[in-house]
Amino acid sequence: MPAWNPNNLLDAAMAGLCAERDALELEQAVRGLDAYDELRLHPVLARALASAGHGVHREQRYPADARRARKTEARRCDLVLTPHGEPLKAAQDPRQPELFPPERGTPPQDAFWLEIKCVSQWVECRPNRAWTTAHERPVFSDVVKLSSDPSLRHAGLMMVLFAASVAVVEHDLQVWAHHAVDRGLRFRMPLLRHAPLRDRWGNRVLACALFPVDASG
C-alpha cells in the first residue's frame, strides 16, 4: 500500500502553479493566473503532479458508482493519483467480474482521490460576490463524495485561492472549516502554501490549501 504524504502533494501542486504564474509573467500576458477557472487549472495541476512522479488520471468514476448502468450517471473525481506512474485499475461491478483482470496497476483503494476547487476574491477589478458561498456548498459536496465511498482510503480536497492577502485566505479557510465541522464532515485541518501574485485586479496572493479527507467509508 502506498504511503501518501499530503505535504508532498501540496508542494508539487504549488510548484506547478507558481511555474504557470511565472510563464504568464514571462510572456507579459494581459491576464494572470487568477483569470484561470477551475477547469483550466486541472491540466496545470495534473502536469505538476505527474512531474513529481505520480500517475495522474482525470475524471475517474467513484468506485461506489461502478454499478450504475450508465457511465454518464456516475459521479467523477477530478484527479486520481497512483504511485510511480502506474495505471489505475477500474472499479469492477461485482455482478460482472472481469475474467482476466490486469496484473499491473493500482486498485482504487490504494490511489489518492483529489477533488479541486478554485475561488478568486477579485474578478476583473470587482469583488467576487460568490467568494464566501463558493467556499461552502460546492466544497461540502466534494467532501461528502470523498468521505462516503467505502472503497476509498486516501483522499483530499484541494482549494486554489486568489485573494488580496494571506490574512484573508487564512481567516476564510478557518471559517469554512468550522462550518464544515458543524455539518459533521470528516476531514483534517488544511495544509497551506502561498506565494505572491502580481496585482492585476485586486488579488495579490496565490494560495493552495489541501484538506486531507477521512475517506474511511
Strand content: 15-25%
- Order the strands across the largest sheet as they lie in space: 1-2-3-6-8-7
User: Which stretches are poorly predicted, pLDDT < 50 over at least 5 residues?
Assistant: none
Reading the helices and strands in chain order gives HHEEEEEHHEHEE
Largest sheet: 6 strands, mixed
Structure commentary:
- Strand 4 and strand 5 form a beta hairpin.
- This protein has 217 residues and is of the alpha+beta class.
- It contains 5 helices and 8 strands.
- It has helices at 6-26, 38-51, 131-134, 137-148, 166-182; strands at residues 55-61, 76-82, 112-120, 122-123, 126-127, 154-163, 191-196, 205-213.
- The mean pLDDT is 88.
- The longest helix is centred in the first third of the chain and has 21 residues, at 6-26.
- It has one domain.
- The strands form 2 sheets. A 6-stranded mixed sheet has the order 1-2-3-6-8-7, sandwiched between helices.
- Helix 1 (6-26) packs across helix 2 (38-51).
